[in-house]
Amino acid sequence: MTILFIIGAVSLYEISYALAELDCIIEPHKTVEVSSATTGVLASVLVDRGEQVKKGQLLARLQSGVEEASVNLAEIQANSKVSILENRHVMS
Q1: Which end of the chain is more exposed for a tag (fewer CB within 10 A), N or C?
Q2: CB–CB of 59/32 below 8 Å?
Q3: What would the DSSP string read from start to end of the chain?
Q4: How confident is the prediction for the chain on average, in pLDDT?
Q5: Of 91 and 73, more confident
Q6: Residue 49 and residue 35: Cα distance in Å, rounded?
Q7: Which domain holds residue 82?
């Protein structure tokens, strides 16, 4: 059962107009440009378009496979050099 209360004189046209879906363009209150200190390929975007975000919030991740491999290689090389120096020290 639907009960409709109408307060005051309102025409059926005014009610149907108020309930109708209207096309419009919403302008943002504020727009900001977001960039990264390094260039790269996006791996994932962690927010949706139009979503409100906070200062410091992570918005996206860059692909980092090459950089991770470079770091791993540098660590291996550093550990190798340390081992060589330790072996030389023990032998002398």
Answers
A1: N
A2: no
A3: -------S---HHHHHHHHS-----PPPS-------SS---EEEE-S-TT----TT---EEE--HHHHHHHHHHHHHHHHHHHHHHHHHHH-
A4: 79
A5: 73
A6: 16
A7: 64-92
- For 13, how many CA atoms within 13 A lie in the half-sphere containing its CB? 0
How many domains are there within the chain?
1
Rounded to the nearest 5°, which phi and psi values hold at 13?
-60, -45
What tokens does 23 get? 């096309």
Residue 20 counted as domain residue: no
- Whether residue 86 lies inside any domain: the answer is yes
pLDDT tens-place string over residues 56-77: 899 998 888 888 888 999 999 9
- Segment 3-8 shows an average pLDDT of 52
Residue 89 lies in a domain: yes
State how far the alpha carbon of 48 is from the alpha carbons of 28, 31, 68, in Å: 15, 15, 27
pLDDT band at 47 (very low <50, low <70, confident <90, very high): very high
